[in-house]
Amino acid sequence: MNNEVAFKLDGYKFTKAILNFDIPQKAELDINFKPSGKFYEKDGCYKLFFDTAVIYKETDTVVISISCIASFSFNGKIRFNDIPEFFYPNSLAIIFPYIRAFVSTLSLQANTSPIVLPTVNLMGLTDILCKNTSVVK
């Protein structure tokens, strides 16, 4: 009997986007991530809420702030405790390229260099996402 749990990305949307270009040309920037999730037991689906902020280090000014919601489904009805550990880091890794592309597109304008987020190892966010996941009955 095969007990593997597979999942897929059903869709995503950006629910908030803030852009502030009032920073120096060669500003040093920081990236902050805030992942959280909700598992809907009735439907067996998971919603990933992934907030990303780019901050100008010197003044703590928010340059870009976006919120993204991604919907994932599993291959069959599962309970919260059946979600495999690999789901959490992989869900972040799946949605992050879309966030990178959105930030680049949002910040692209004439006479200004776009903000391009680097590729990032998101494994460090796994525990945060697990702790910030709630169950909706």
From TrEMBL:
InterPro entries with a match to the protein in the record: SecB-like_sf
This protein's name: Preprotein translocase subunit SecB
Species the sequence originates in: Prevotella pallens ATCC 700821
Taxon lineage: Bacteria, Pseudomonadati, Bacteroidota, Bacteroidia, Bacteroidales
